[in-house]
Amino acid sequence: MTRILLVEDDIIMRVTLFDRIKNNGWHVEEAKNGKEALTFLENQHYHIVISDIRMPGLNGIKLLEHIKKTSPETDVILMTAYGNVDNAVECLKKGAVDYMLKPFDMDDLIIRINRLVQLQTFRIKCASLAEHQPSNKIIGESLLHQDLLHLIAKIAVTNSTVLVNGESGTGKELVAGAIHRLSNRSNNPYIRINCGALPDHLIESELFGHEKGAFTDAHARKAGKFELADNGTLLLDEIGDLPLPLQVKLLRVLQEKELERLGGTKPIQVDVRIICATAKDLKKEVKEGRFREDLYYRLQVIPIDIPPLRKRKDDIPILSEHFLEEFSRGHNFAFYLSETAMQCLKRYDFPGNIRELRNVLERATVLASSPTINISDLPADISGFLPATDIETCTLAEAVSRAERACIMQALEQTSHNKTEAAKILGISRKNLWEKLKLYETDTMLLFQQT
User: Fold this and answer.
1) Residue ending a domain, choose from 307, 324, 340
2) Positive or negative CA dihedral for 204, 208, 212, 213?
3) Beta-carbon neighbour count of residue 348 at 10 Å?
4) Sign of the CA dihedral running 205, 273, 161, 237
5) Closest C-alpha among 326, 385, 389 to residue 354
6) Is the pLDDT of residue 446 over 70?
């Protein structure tokens, strides 16, 4: 919720403004002078400060300068009954976002506050996009993929905490993003933080924010990810890497819906939907004492398990097509996978999941000498891959036969099915190659192609 501090020494004006602002649904607190306002600012973060300029003691200009030093993200509106053009210009130069002459229309003030709230929300969204720009499409056709989409649609409309489980590279961030986009919080901030990417001494400040002077480099107050995500969604990626002391603080935030900044003393209310993601087995982490059991059960109100790519290989063709379309944009032609190259991809188990598939195809588009990606353009561990089950059940003769056929097919693709050139690569005669093609019952089109 938007928090506003009203600073006005005239009691009638202060009460009038307070009532009008509060009636519009914003959280507002009032201070009767600049000195009292400093006390509020020391203990709470405000999105907007509305202050009179002429006040006893600390005036509005000095208060503005203090706010810009300690909380630069806070917007300040200054009011006065004794203003002129020069005065307005000075205020704006010092960092005020707006300047109002008394008396003014209350509706005008509400319009200006609304505009600032919208601009602040827009700034947060832009900051989030600048940090993370992944594709927001969840691609797939398999039954497992369809089940995943149905589950996302069901839980998105709730405010429940979600725990997304899945191996590295399965698309946990995409699932979390889809939940936010389909929720009633979609117009509010979506903030992400990777709990395993930051040192222990920085992650607390990133999550909960800090007050000025909380540590050596804390030169100004900073709002944490929870505050930035207020009324929106916060993704805690790699939650299994969160240090134990911070797990206690996170549990309190989830239960009480309030937090304290590092170095702060006053609770800050937040309304945030939490989505957590992890590639770790949190049950195992709990048993081994690396993850709190109470936090584990608090997080997995609604668990989502994303299947690895090896369990939904029917999605490999459509995923490959999507990635090749993406990589084709930077070239003068479109890339395609040959049938044999596609079969190789579908045989491979992809321990790195969708991320590995994307990297393989990006590499292939860079190295390919033509728009058609052949077996020779794929990494050796994929182009020469034989499923473990086949190796276990086949005889040595069958294994040799399959390996020989794979070599022949690779040579043919490398030479665009020129059997004379393929035979040279294989170190056999053209007649011998022809006989082997008939032996392995290769596609009849290969046998009758003119070379």
Assistant:
1) 307
2) negative
3) 22
4) negative
5) 326
6) no
CA distance 443 to 297: 56
**Domain co-membership, 259 together with 399:** no
Other C-beta atoms lying within 10 Å of the C-beta of residue 387 = 11
DSSP for 100-126, written as a single string: EESS--HHHHHHHHHHHHHHHHHHHHH
**Residue 137 falls within a domain, yes or no?**
no
Domain for residue 168, yes or no?
yes
Instruction: Compute the distance between CA of residue 83 and CA of residue 100 in angstroms, rounded to an integer.
Output: 9
Is 190 a member of any domain?
A: yes
Structure tokens at 68: 């810009």
The pLDDT score that the predictor gives to residue 136 is: 59
Convert the pLDDT of each residue in 59-74 to its tens digit.
Answer: 889 999 999 888 888 9
**Are both 52 and 112 inside the same structural domain?**
yes
Does any domain span residue 372? yes
Domain of residue 90, CATH code = 3.40.50.2300
Instruction: Check whether residue 161 and residue 201 sit in a common domain.
Output: yes
What pLDDT, on a 0 to 100 scale, did the predictor assign at position 392? 42
With contact defined as beta carbons under 8 Å apart, do 400 and 408 qualify? Answer: no
236/151 same-domain check? yes
pLDDT reported for residue 390: 40
CA dist., res. 414 & res. 406, Å (int): 12
In this predicted structure, what is the pLDDT of residue 134? 46
Task: Tell me if 10 sits within 8 A of 53, measured CB to CB.
Answer: no
Q: How confident is the model at residue 389 (pLDDT cuts 50, 70, 90)?
A: very low
pTM for the structure as a whole: 0.64
AA letter at 142: S
DSSP-based helix, strand, coil % in the chain, nearest 5: 50, 15, 35
**Secondary structure class of 268 (helix, strand, coil):** strand
Domain edge (last residue) among 289, 307, 325 = 307
Confidence of residue 398 (pLDDT cuts 50, 70, 90): low
Name the domain count of the chain: 3
236 vs 394, more confident: 236
Residue 444 belongs to domain with CATH number: 1.10.8.60
Provide the CATH number for the domain around residue 188.
Answer: 3.40.50.300
Cβ proximity of 189 and 232 under 8 Å: yes
| pLDDT tens profile 85-132 | 777 888 888 889 999 988 899 999 999 999 898 888 777 665 554 444
The boundaries of the domain holding residue 111 are 3-129
